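pinging the channel bc i need a second pair of eyes. not urgent but kinda urgent?? the chain im working w is below, pasted from the shared doc
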Amino acid sequence: MLTLPVFASTVHAEDTATPQLEMNATAGMIFDEHTGQVVYKKDADEKVAIGSITKIVTLYLVTKAIKEGKFTEKDMLRPTQAQADMTQKNELTNVRLDADKTYSVKDLYEAAWIVSSNSAAMMLADKVAGSQGEFVKLMRKTVKDWGIKGAELYNVSGLNNSDLQPDMYLGTDQDENKLSANDIGVIVKHVLDEYPEILQTTSKAKLDFPVGNETKTYDSLNLLLKGHRDYQEGYEFDGLKTGTTDAAGESFVGTLPIQDTRMVTIVLNAQGEKEDRDKRFRSTQKLVHFLADNYERKEVIKKNQTITINNKKYKTYEPVYTWLLKNNNVENLRYNVSRNDLGFTAIHNKKTVKLIATNTDGGYLPYKQTIVKKAIHKETNHKSWWDQIIEFFQHLF
């Protein structure tokens, strides 16, 4: 089905002024994970270093491989000597791995998510693709399939290539993974839409990991989780991933349930003193407070309501909610047919389509347009000359 063009208008009620936010970061955004509606964004197209936020893509592919039955959480993996050696360097990792021991996929998976273990991510990538170079190619293909252009992905962990052995990356030793806030938003929506159970891991405030002959407990790097120092009651974060390198600075992708939906926050390279280890989380708190103070998730279309777009009628089968400024009038919203899977579902001529509001503040994530090509089967005659003779005489009588 052909879709109508979507306009990036940002018209508001005449008496509504868009509130301003100083996020103190190079780039970022906050968006509704369910609909893809962006409430706020800053320099969202700028490609910047992302550090261990890379592991969102890495661990998505690991999750996918497990769900497809390629291996199980109980499988045991042994690190290479190089991967084990990396865990002796405090600046590169935090959980100790020994080359003469094996570790379960489950323990490695949790270590990569909760405390961002680089060697654990590498071991899992090797399990999926046979080598880290092949896994990076898989990462590149995945984000390209999601419509992300110009992604710079060279390794599975997010470290600078100069910190790695040559067989741990593609590109040169000076390359570093880079994505934009828009890119990360698209990635996170795909990941959480497909595997929301990932949050069962990322919501854990602590990691119990086997070290030597004992079990050691590590704190999650997400300091917004309940029990950690940046937690705020009423803002119940349950994910997702930190990222830190010299080039990336301190970044964080967060997510939390709020007002019967799920919001995703992105803060890239939080600004502030180098010794300040909370600045990315304060910038994240600014985003969610900005949302709570200025916006409301309003019912804009009722169940079974009919709306008209370009003389065509569309009927909803459930209430439609959109984030709007608290003093904005619902009647000012305009709608159009979506070019992709974002927005809300309506029915036109017994077919379901997606509709979006075209004049909200931040618009929607730049999802790839899904084009379904219909295969046209032409009827061809492959009958033999003998079949044609028989058919000829059949038609005579």
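so Residues 279-294 form the longest helix (16 residues). and The CA atoms of residues 345 and 354 lie 5 Å apart. — does that match what u expected or am i reading it wrong
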